[in-house]
Amino acid sequence: GATGRTAAVSRAFWGRPARVLVLLFLSVIMLGTGLLMLPAAQGGREVSAVEALFTATSALCVAGLSVTGPVAHWSLFGQLVVLGLIQVGGIGIMTMASVLGLVVIRRFGLRMQLSVQSEQRTLNVGDARGIVLRIVATSLTCEALLALVLIPRMWLAHGMPAHEAAYSGLFHSVSAFNNAGLSLYGDSLTRFAGDPLVLGPVALATVLGGLGFPVLLELRRHLSTPRRWSLHTKMTVWTSLLLFVGGMVAVTALEWGNPATLGALPWPQRLLDGAFHGVMPRSGGFNVVDVGAMESHTLFVTVMLMFVGGGSAGTAGGIKASTFAVIWFVVWAEVRGHPQVHAFGRRLSAGAIRQALSLTFLSMTVVAFATIHLTAISPFPLLDVLFEVVSAFGVVGLSTGIAPALPPHGQVLLTILMFAGRLGPITFASALALRERTRRYDLPEGRPVIG
Amino acid sequence: GATGRTAAVSRAFWGRPARVLVLLFLSVIMLGTGLLMLPAAQGGREVSAVEALFTATSALCVAGLSVTGPVAHWSLFGQLVVLGLIQVGGIGIMTMASVLGLVVIRRFGLRMQLSVQSEQRTLNVGDARGIVLRIVATSLTCEALLALVLIPRMWLAHGMPAHEAAYSGLFHSVSAFNNAGLSLYGDSLTRFAGDPLVLGPVALATVLGGLGFPVLLELRRHLSTPRRWSLHTKMTVWTSLLLFVGGMVAVTALEWGNPATLGALPWPQRLLDGAFHGVMPRSGGFNVVDVGAMESHTLFVTVMLMFVGGGSAGTAGGIKASTFAVIWFVVWAEVRGHPQVHAFGRRLSAGAIRQALSLTFLSMTVVAFATIHLTAISPFPLLDVLFEVVSAFGVVGLSTGIAPALPPHGQVLLTILMFAGRLGPITFASALALRERTRRYDLPEGRPVIG
Ligand SMILES: [K+]
Ligand SMILES: [K+]
């Protein structure tokens, strides 16, 4: 019966959570691809199997890249399939990653505010159910609040008919909170450029979704007492703040005089649009100026922001803010000559350091090889290809526009990158953490010359 | 008197070795800049102060980049100044880095074959003197042997007059063993392309000089018994072998069909020239095909090889083979779920791992910021700028040709990068290692979510 199946699924999940996560995502992608290949989904436009697979993966992995133009090119049915995949993907990844994070945290007996954890001692199916319910409630609440701001604004200030504003507001609310970055429009949110009442709420929802569920939960409980935040929340919040401010300043300053992007605008709009583009690389993926027209050094800064990404167990991608922070706490401790790595009153474990290093270098390797291969099989400059590869691997969705022009096997490579970028860091890092054992010093210590 | 001054210098060195090293290099660069600004040094061509500074730094740091064309553009006096700077720089960096490495190794009481160490128990000025003498002897021997091959070959097979062959052979021998990569000719060694009797010995001397003095010394003693090699030698030799083979295969394969580089050549020459260009990024810096005409993905592969560089305490630059190896041993241990990081029968210390990570990320940060800045102030594509920046920081000397066209403050930035790339990794890593203390666990352990 249904209860037996549920029990079997939950046993399988606790046994090999990462494998179940990958299989579930693969199944939903196959389902989505099948639905998008139905004639009813295609708005009078022939879509190949590769394009349907790419779109389904991009939606479910909330990656946001597109090879078939804007979402509005699909029929209404197709659009709803995409919207459904975004919602399922966002909630799915938040749930799975939160539960995996909970398993890791429990394994080490460390403090982290994950709702049910503080009430019960053992981890069971009830925990997971509680987490799912809270995540669904949080997601729907945030999306509804955003839609309540966007819909009247689109209707009253941007001249949309009421029903169109309602649909567009809802679609972009879901896309924003889930950090999908997929838009109904071919130029993303460019038509709302300079409107703080659209861009501000969209950016805020993107940031919240990108912080990750564990952080959101802690912020709701202890927003005004940062002293009580867990190490993970402190790291994620402060690193994110630093990267947001740095990204906003860098993008705005570097594009300030570029007539093809910010240069032609009045300065308040330059500030607003520039700030928006400083936030979006950390997995939001919407744009209000033409990314392909940006200066190459701005693209490079954006690549770095996209690679780092957002918070763990959220809808953002990348190696994650906490991973990035661990690396810099190590560097900082070394530069000061401290024998231990301290962060916010805690000593970082050697295991966490090794995992951060491993995840970062494996990610760099994936990005490098994919970039070399895609550059070799396409006519585009290396920087544009690197940008698209990091955008796919970091599930960001910003693009200089080359994805639709890639040969089919290049599009398949991007599809694999989106999938690997969505599930790789989470499953890899949690698998490593769960396997971590106490150290037995079995070999004599060795030391090569470094540098 | 002289003895008193020597004693004072040696006390100062043992007190703050890294600072003395930096001051010595700065003084010689100033001296070299002064000499190159003399009218007698300039072969009928006006040279600015920035260009003289750039050339002196490039020669002393054996970096190999040029903003004044080939070395032959200088008068004979100027050429001899450059040659002298290369020789002093090569021997100087090998000596200083070896002594620093020795200090580090002794500090940890670990086994490493550094000549005098096995004979005496305490480290004193005599050690340093012994090391200097051995390094001078090794350098001059290798350079003489290379010249004995190059001179007759240039004379008999390349139609040079005997005196020209003698001078050219000598110059390029010194430039090759010291990994300077500076050539008398505007197109580097292109005129010898396809000649295995020139390219082979040049590549071999480059590889030997780039392995580093500690490794060379151990190889001479225990070449046939790899089992007896120290951890550092094993790491450096095997990583170098892997990177050489990988580089040769990658460059040859990626350029195979490029008519502007290898594509137009008969296939044996494609293999030879391609292999040569797989070796040269690891700091040699000579070229036999036009680097500016290479495919952009080949340039990207070359950038990665240049960033890693060669062996510690040698004439090569980059973060060094051992640093790169430590990172991958960490990744490999994590992937296999091993609680310790093992390499060649030794357990890598947490300190060495943190230092490797810190050096690598600080280097990446320097490269990224320099690339962004230089791209913003010049009209060149980001990839070309990245290539030039990594070539300067890794003291390689390969170039797509943009350095001479940069504005003066861009050339000054490259000069700083060459200096920082030459001395930074050595002084930074040894300073960290010397400061490393025993761990006292003073704070409770914390663990953020990674990935
Ligand atoms: K996205
Ligand atoms: K060089």
Total number of helical segments of chain A? 15
User: In this structure, how is the largest beta sheet of chain A organized?
Assistant: 2 strands, antiparallel
List the uncertain runs of chain A: 110-123
Q: Strand arrangement, largest sheet of chain A?
A: 1-2
Radius of gyration of chain A: 22 Å
Helix content of chain A: 55-70%
Q: Given the C-alpha coordinates, what overall shape of chain A results?
A: globular
Total beta-strand segments of chain A: 3
Strand content of chain A: under 5%
Oligomer: homodimer
Structural class of chain A: mainly alpha
Describe the structure concisely for a colleague.
2 copies of one chain form a homodimer. In chain A, helix 8 packs across helix 9.
